[in-house]
Write a structure and sequence with these properties.
With about 150 residues, this protein is an all-alpha fold. The protein has helices at about 10, 15-30, 35-40, 50-60, 65-70, 75-80, 90-105, 110-125. The chain contains eight helices and no strands. The protein binds protoporphyrin IX containing FE.
Length: about 150
């Protein structure tokens, strides 16, 4: 990160406005990309609440004001994702949107790859189910009858 090493990632990203911009683009991509359809389906019809929660979490996580903690207590994100079937496929779709949003908005190559790496670790940590659980409805064929029982 060269000259920016002394700054918190929060500052490097542009503080509140920069994080809001990233989150906005991330959910816009989730809404628009056909490749993110599966992960979009897991979310509520309107993404405003999801965007606000992610913004508040990222604010503290990246070294700025701990807005999420102040409102909801310790994030315990893996536990909060437990009600959702986060498979490797869902993780990949989530990361596709986040990687594109970061690539578009972060000009510094070193900071860009640091951010993608950090989000990747967190996304890996959220995986809580096997991809074979994805979209099984309506797919009872000879191939999976019995094998998933
Ligand atoms: C790996 C793939 C992931 C999937 C499929 C996923 C999916 C979801 C879903 C379905 C929700 C509930 C919708 C909502 O609250 O509006 C949610 C909430 C949330 N996610 Fe994720 N997520 C993933 C990764 C991440 C990562 C990597 C982060 C942080 C860097 C994150 C941060 C959050 C936060 C802060 C909330 C709100 C939690 C709450 O207050 O209840 N998620 N996620």
């Amino acid at each position: 990160m060269n000259s920016t090493t002394a700054m918190a990632p929060y500052e490097v990203l542009g503080g509140e406005a920069g994080i809001k911009r990233l989150v906005h683009r991330f959910y816009e991509l989730m809404d628009e990309l056909p490749e993110a359809y599966g992960v979009r389906q897991m979310h509520p019809a309107t993404l405003d609440g999801s965007g606000q929660s992610l913004f508040e979490f990222l604010s503290g996580w990246l070294g700025g004001p701990p807005l999420y903690m102040e409102k909801k207590g310790h994030p315990r994100l893996r536990m909060r994702h437990a009600p959702y079937a986060v498979s490797q496929t869902m993780r990949d779709e989530w990361m596709l949107c986040m990687t594109q949003a970061i690539t578009e908005q972060v000009p510094d190559a070193a900071f860009q790859s640091w951010l993608i790496g950090t989000f990747t670790q967190m996304a890996d940590h959220m995986v809580n189910t096997d991809s074979s659980q994805d979209c099984q409805h309506g797919m009872s064929t000879a191939a999976n009858i019995g094998s998933s029982a």
